[in-house]
Amino acid sequence: MQFSVIKAIPVIKCDAMTFDPMTDILKAGGNAVDSAIATLIGIGVVNPQSSGIGGSCLMTIYDASLKKAFSIDARGTAPSASNSTMFIGKSEDAVLGWKASILPGEIHGFWTAFKQFGSGRISWKDIFEPSIKLARRGFPVSKSLALVLKQKEKDIFGDEHMRNHFVNPKTKNLFEEGEIIKRETLANTLELIGNAEDPVKLFYQDGIIAKTIAKEFKENGGIITAEDLANFKAIVDENPLQSSLALNESDLIMCGPPPPSSFGITSAIVGIMAEFYNGKQDDDGTLNDTKVYHRLIEAQKFAYSYRTKFADPDFSKEALEVSQKMMKS
């Protein structure tokens, strides 16, 4: 069974982004990893409600020269002082506030991917530069960002730092769809990271960002410490999970990270749908067919019922086993 070779590169970007870092990086000689990192940084600028350097990172990379897939796990982990009972009777603390935060893994994951799988023809600084310019220049607030800001209005106005970022100084109201928002503070942070010779040292060890994170968490009752940051590591898996599919008389392979990623869930859903739409039946599975939606809903219900078992294999013996079983479902 062979991995397929993609001869055309699909380029993906967010509608709110007023530039196309993926194409620009590819044209400058970068590879898919370089361009993906640049794009994800840009998405973190324009979609802070769902992405950003305070979050996690999971990547699956196929190295054509080695004919081998790899995965990177930079999923945020819980601080060392956390425990299974800390939110009992304090459910709001689990979703809002300084104790709700996990360790930020994204930058460690990006740096690991860049160093091990980047082209070597694009500098780390060049990857960050387009997003820094975008954050300083400003961009129109998207419909999705405006919606989330409105949903979190009380929390935003209740926090000085959030107000400084997401309240329009001209209107004194939350930024609304279409208004131009600038993210100067984030631009400064991205510039520090992009200019760093060793961003892991800067962000996780004894650099200014690491010290700032640890200091602010301590001052505000959080439990992330300097030691937690220093101990964080992105994990490169040379044997990611694989799932085989027989589709249209071709053997296909899906690859993805082990738990705590949800690749096993995705694999199960695709595998179930492939049993119905594999080129062997007359049913073509067009989106006008209500059976497609019925089958997809049932496949998702089955797969997502296992989601609570997708814990970190370092702490849950059954997590990897459950994921592997689901890929055979």
Automatic annotation (TrEMBL):
One of its GO terms (molecular function) is glutathione hydrolase activity. L-glutamate binds at residue 75. Keywords: Acyltransferase, Glycoprotein, Hydrolase, Protease, Transferase. GO terms for cellular component: plasma membrane. Gene3D superfamilies: 1.10.246.130. The keyword Cell wall biogenesis/degradation does not apply. Pfam families: G_glu_transpept. GO terms for biological process: glutathione catabolic process; proteolysis. PANTHER family: GAMMA GLUTAMYL TRANSPEPTIDASE, RE13973P. This is Gamma-glutamyltransferase. It comes from Panagrolaimus superbus. The lineage of its organism: Eukaryota, Metazoa, Ecdysozoa, Nematoda, Chromadorea.
